[in-house]
Design goal:
Structural class: mainly alpha
Distance between the termini: 161 Å
Strand content: under 5%
Number of strands: 0
Shape: rod-shaped
Oligomer: single chain
Largest sheet: none
Radius of gyration: 56 Å
Number of helices: 5
Helix content: over 70%
């Protein structure tokens, strides 16, 4: 019996349902009824109905907007607009991805350029170190040669020099090549045949 009276009550209050649905729906765009706002609209209609019917002993548990009838042209316009918004969001996402990729490539190129600069700087420093090492080696060799020459000049006597000259002339004499010997005449030439 309670169900019977409940149905009678609902039939009598049908205009109340329509009025609440119309009032709440008028606050939103038609596209909102086809989007995530649909749940919000349903909740607001339920709250409005409960504020009126709770006083009479009825509680609305849920309002479901199952079938929304709009003029066909409006439906098509809403669907076209939703598709356009989705396309715009897709393009925005694609653009963000491209910007991120360009940023990544720029960072990678900067890193590569810095690595080349560091590598070139390292090679230049290595070349400088090698050049300094070679210069130091040449300096050390020259100093050693100068020290050796100094020691030799101290130890050379006129007799040793004369002996060395004789050895050199003798080596020239034994050679089969043509020879021209120019001297100051003070050094004796030993072992050379006279008349040649």
């Amino acid at each position: 019996m309670d169900i019977f009276w409940s149905l009678i009550f609902l039939i009598l209050n049908y205009p109340l349902f329509r009025s609440a649905a119309a009032d709440i729906s008028s606050k939103y765009y038609a596209k909102d009824m086809h989007s995530g706002e649909r749940h919000t609209i349903e909740q607001e209609i339920s709250d409005r109905m409960n504020s009126i019917l709770n006083k009479k002993g009825f509680t609305i548990e849920a309002v479901l907007l199952k079938s929304i009838s709009l003029p066909s042209g409006l439906n098509q316009a809403i669907e076209a607009k939703l598709r356009a918004e989705q396309d715009a969001q897709r393009m925005e996402f694609t653009n963000k991805q491209e910007v991120l990729e360009a940023t990544r490539k720029s960072i990678q190129a900067d890193g590569y350029a810095k690595a080349l600069i560091i590598g070139a700087k390292g090679e230049r420093e290595i070349a400088e170190i090698r050049a300094q090492g070679k210069a130091k080696a040449v300096t050390i060799e020259a100093e050693a040669q100068a020290a050796a020459n100094h020691l030799m000049s101290k130890s050379l006597t006129p007799m040793i020099i004369q002996s060395k000259q004789v050895d050199a002339y003798e080596a020239l004499y034994k050679s089969s090549n043509t020879k021209v010997i120019i001297t100051d005449g003070k050094t004796p030439l030993l072992g050379l045949p006279s008349g040649k």
